[in-house]
C-alpha cells in the first residue's frame, strides 16, 4: 500500500516537473496525469498546488470544474454517446436509453464487472453522420441499435 | 506510373469506416503488386458519401463512395485504378453538383491535399497570403483584413480587422494570438474539418495575425472530443517549424512566431472567449466581465487577438487574392463566404461553403435534399444549441448575420440541424434549458439558476399544470436570462426556447382531451 502511493507520487511529480514551466500549466498537468493513471489520483492535487504555488482549493476547483477529469478509474472501456441536438434528430435519445438498458448503468456509471463506463458527450463534431459515439479512441458514426448491441457485447469480453 | 488513391483521415470518414477501407486497399495493392500509393486526405465534406475513395487520373480525380472495406476488391476488379465504372462510381469529383455549386475559399484545399504535406500546401496556393503579408506593414495587413469585411465566424460576427487594429494599437511586452477551436456547438464541424484537412491554412492565418499585431506566440485551444484534429494539428505544427514557417524567423523574415495546441477538458462554456482565456491560464472556465476587452487585457493580461478557426483560416486567401476579391462575395454587411454545416436529419449532410445570401430553404431543401428519414422537415436549428429553431414559414430567410437577427435568430458558427416532423419542440426547449444548466459556469445568476428553473417550468408545462401561467413564467424567465446574463450561454439559451414556443405553439399545449360530440 505504502509503495503504491509512493509510486503514484513519484510518477506524478515527474509529470508536474516536466510541465510546470509552461504558461498556464494546470490543465496540461491534469490531462497528463489522467493519461498516465487513467484518472487523477486525489493525492496528486496537493502536489500540483505545491509545485505551482497555488492553493489546494484552487486546484480542487479546476479539477472539479471540467467534465473530463475523473477522481477514480473508469471501466476498461469508455463509451461516449453524443446527446446533442444533431444526434437527437436522428434518434439519439432512443439509442441512449437502449445503451443504458443494455449495460444496466446510468450516465457516468461503470458496469459491475468493470468492463465499461458510459459517458454522455455533447457533440463529437460528427453531426453530418449522426448519431455519433466514441468507444475509447474510436469514433463511430450512424450508430444504430444493432451496432450498439454488438458494442455492448464486445466490451464485456 | 504510380497510381495515387485518396482515402480520408477526417474523423467523419473514420467514423464511417475509412480506416478499414484504407487497410483493405493497402492489402489489395500489396497482393496485386500494384504500383500505387494511398494519400490520407481530409474530407470534401460530403458525409453521405463517406468513406469516399478517389483516384488520380489524367482527366482529374474520380471518386467512389460510400465505400466499404468489402467493396475494395470489386472496385479494383472494375478498374478503379484507371477510374473504371462501378455502382459506387461518382465520376469526376470536381463536377459533382454538391461541390460544383460551392465557392470554396477557406476550404479550397480541404479534401484535396495531404493535410500534413507542406509541399502539397505550397503547390496549391498555400503560403502566398503569408508571403504577401511579409511585404506589407502591420497596419497595411490589418487594413486589408478590415477592408475584406471579414467578421468573426465563431458566431458573434464582430469585424476581425477592428479587433486586430485594437491589438496592434495596444502596447504590451507580449501579445498573443489565440485561436478559438473549442467548437462545441452541435451541428458544427467546420473547425474540425479544417484542422484535420488543411491545418497549414490555420497556421498561416495565425502567423499573419501575429505579424499584423506584433504577437509572437499563438495558442490553439481545442476540444478533448477532437483527438484526431489534435493529432493532425500537432503533426502539422512540427512540419511548419521544420519548414521554416514557424520559429524565430518566419519564412526567413525578421518576425518570430510559434503556436502551441492546448486541449480543453469537456466544458462547453470554454468556447466563450473570456472563459477560454481563463482555462488557458489554468483556471476554471469562468466567464470574465468585459471590459477590459481581450484585445486590451486578454491572455495573462496581455493584448490578445482571439478569433475562431474559420476567421483565421479565411485570412490567407484575403492576403493572397486581396480584400476586394473576398469582399465581392456575400450580401449586405455579411461579406465573403461562410462554410455552412448541414447536419442532423438530412439526406445530404456535410460542409457547403458559399457566399452569404442563400436562403434557409435553398440550403435545407435543395442542397441538403430534405430529411434523411424522408419525412417532412419540421424545424431547423441554426447556430448550435444557443440558436433559434426555424419553421418552414421562415425558409425564405437569407443566410446573413442581420437577416437572421431580424427573425430573432442567429447564424452562429453556421451549423444547421434539421429535424423531421417527429420532433417534439417542447422536449427541445427543455433540452436547451437542461444543457445550459449542465454547462453554466455558475458566475451569473440568470444563467446558473434560470436554466434550472427553466427545466422545471417546462416540466410543469408538459404535465399540463396551469399551462398558461407556465408559458408566462417561461417567457419572463427567458427575458431575464437574455438581458441579465454575462455571456452568450445564458443570454442566448432563450433563442431555442422562445423560438420553439413562438413557432410551434401546438407542441406546448397538451393534446385536447377528446370530448364526445353528443
Descriptive terms for the model:
heterodimer, A: about 160 residues, alpha+beta, Glutaredoxin, 2 domains, four-stranded mixed β-sheet, 7 helices, about 10% strand, B: about 525 residues, alpha/beta, Rossmann fold, Ubiquitin-like (UB roll), 4 domains, five-stranded mixed β-sheet, 21 helices, 16 strands
Mind sketching the topology for me?
The complex is a heterodimer of chains A (157) and B (518).
Chain A (H helix, E strand, L loop, with lengths): L1 H18 L6 H12 L7 H8 L3 H10 L11 E6 L2 H4 L3 H12 L12 E6 L11 E3 L2 E3 L4 H10 L3
Parallel strand pairs in A: 1-2
Antiparallel strand pairs in A: 1-3, 3-4
Helix pairs in contact in A: 1-2, 3-4, 6-7
Chain B lengths: L2 E4 L4 H5 L2 H14 L4 E4 L13 E5 L2 E5 L7 H6 L11 E4 L4 H4 L17 H6 L4 H7 L3 H11 L11 H10 L6 E6 L8 H8 L1 H15 L3 E6 L4 H16 L15 E6 L9 H8 L23 E5 H13 L1 H5 L2 E2 L2 E2 L1 E8 L5 E6 L4 H8 L9 E6 L6 E3 L9 H6 L8 E6 L4 H15 L5 H18 L4 H18 L3 H5 L1 H10 L15
Parallel strand pairs in B: 1-2, 6-7, 6-9, 7-8, 12-16
Antiparallel strand pairs in B: 1-3, 3-4, 4-5, 10-11, 12-13, 14-15, 14-16
Helix pairs in contact in B: 6-10, 6-13, 7-8, 7-10, 9-10, 9-11, 10-13, 17-18, 17-21, 18-19, 19-21
